[in-house]
What does this fold into?
Amino acid sequence: MCGRSRVTLAAAVLLAGAQMLSPGGVNAASGTSPCDQTKTSICGAALGPLRDVSAAWHWYQPALVQPIPVSDYKSDPEDAPPPTGAGVCGGETASPPSNGHFVPPSTLAAAPPPGVPAPPGSHGPYCVLRYLATDFTPLCAACHRILFDFSRMPAGTTAQPHPAGHWAGRVSLSTGTSATAEVNGHSPNIKNLCSDKFINPAAGSTCVPWLMLIDTYTLGVEGDTTFFHHFPLEGRYYNGPEYLAGNGHTIPYHWVRAAYVDVSPGAATAGAWYGAGYRGVGDPLPDTDQSYGCACEVPPFGTSTLSVSYALPRRTS
It folds into this structure.
């Protein structure tokens, strides 16, 4: 059986449950999004719909190697040796984890390691980022894996142009402050504060207490829908439109054009929605990364978007 056939077969088996359970675009009866009752010009869910992929969460579990194309971010101000910039690939500042495990260093390479696919349409060199299994926690029993599905972003309108770069947003649940996030329960192509080693000095993938509280309850993340950006001073994570999932053995390596967060609603049923600022096609500022932020994502330079609420299916396991 060829490699592509193995990927297709594995995907069909693992995604069968997720496809049936996906909330799609159905409004949650208990939703709290402003767009549930009154649709305005910013109710376009420009970053794509939210999908609950909990039933197939293994398929979306990140690979422990992520090859990031340097060509996407080589013009970013921080991608240069000090004092001009903040460092280059290989200079990540992750501290050794408290359990004494070795944190594998990133390397600059012309191509990904053998057997590891490159991002579709990309070219070398790559900053090959490496991780520990503890960097990406498994889905907890009470949690939902909620996907921002960039592959299904709408075409765009005058009020909600198609995304073309940085974004920063927050997931909200109808259960309010009962909802909590897993600090390491997110894909490597988006960042919260705990994955930001410039702000969080804790060892490995752990988090200092006050930052953990912020990430646990605010459910805020940032990313990029179009380009890869990597800032070595801030650790081994990155912003980008997709990430590599699978382990190359039981689950084939495959790129996922999306980003996920793991959230516990604090109740058996809930509705989830998001609000975000993002750079859209035609917005005036370039998608230039500055410490994973960009003025291009902030209105009036950027665009605001809201989604309706999506009903999260009841977890059965």
Summary: The CA atoms of residues 77 and 83 lie 11 Å apart. The longest helix spans residues 3-21.
